[in-house]
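Below is a concrete protein record.
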Amino acid sequence: MYLDEFNLNRVNSKKNRLASMLLDVNSLKRIQWEILMDFTHASNAIEGSPFTIDETHMIMDIGKNFMTKSSYFQRLTVIHTYAFEYIRNNMRKNITANRLLELHEITMRNIDKEAGQFRDQSERNIICGRLTEFLEKLNNSQKYHIIEKSALLQGYLHRIRPFNNGTGSIARLASKWMLNNYGYVTGLHLNPYEVKYYRRCAEKADKGTVAPLVHLMVMCVEETLDLLLSKVKSLNILPVEEAMEKSLDVARVFVY
């Protein structure tokens, strides 16, 4: 294991505290959407996107078209919405090579002519076989915590580069998907320095050194939990009994 029990217990206590809260449905949906927009901005920034966080929000919220900026990253920003929907519809399902192909097809649609295909036609069966073997071992492993597994998955995808385009985006989306399957909230609230550090961690994972990426993933999960706890506390939280008595439209706090 890469993580110590103290850090895991701290993160899990925040996760459990958040899961015990109730919030009105509309407020919860807005918080979910803000987390996804921030994730999209940071993930694209890691790939070199020129868009600011505010511009990313405008693209996703109101469909703003920035004609003078990269059309590639503008399309990638919009399509992340469909990628998140795919992940939400496949919650609790193990990540497989075929599901990663489906996620890639959605994420790179109208961007990459090889969307939904592994790179190098002559090696596609080899790549699929290696990825299938790795995912089966990872999904069944009892050795690692799920946060560690999410980083190992990212590292392996960076190492074998299964796609000609979009490997980094898919690696982060797949990591988020894996964590969501186990109830861990995952956002990417990264400043410009942290974006550069994330790139370096991914490069190290590409060479087999995964520990920095594991600890960065813990930071991302915990910062998202802290942000959510702060936002939820500032809104109208109700005890379960009172919510049931008033038949209010509330839901347990869960962010995918």
